[in-house]
Amino acid sequence: MTGAVRLEPVDEQNLEPLLSVAVAEAEPADVMPPVAAPAGWSHARREAFREFHRASFGGLDAATRTAMYAIIAGGEVVGMIRMTRRDEPDVVEVGMWLGRSARGQGIGAAALRELLNLAAAAGMRVVVADTTPENRGALSVLEKCGAKLREDGDRVHAEIHLDATPPAL
Predict the structure, then answer these.
(1) CA-CA distance, 22 to 11, in Å (whole number)?
(2) Is the dihedral of CA 110, 111, 115, 118 positive or negative?
């Protein structure tokens, strides 16, 4: 990995670069909820991507209860990481995606560590995630950041307690 990894709240300034990375290096299903639109990155799907991200501009205390951050590595937008309030007090769920060219370089773990700091600063005590056993990249990032993993059928649930000592870098 070259250069520092940092997070910037998703806003109008970085939304188009984020969409460009998604279109060039990810499948729509990997970066946004499903929408009724033609396959691939159609005009309707691009608009839905923009609206999905704009809905979370208000952060954890807004209607979506979600804070989204562009992941910046080497000065470029390479993906997105988010945290969403859960119904349990002081618990957020994390989700992340990286463009294909940014995977396997330690960027995901660095971004998650930054998000854990932001979650702790927001008063959260626990960060959870949900993925599949086949998503080896996500599982590796979660383990590197101290998550306790529990497999349940075709899902893997992860939990990170923010009062625990983080693993060494």
Answers:
(1) 16
(2) positive
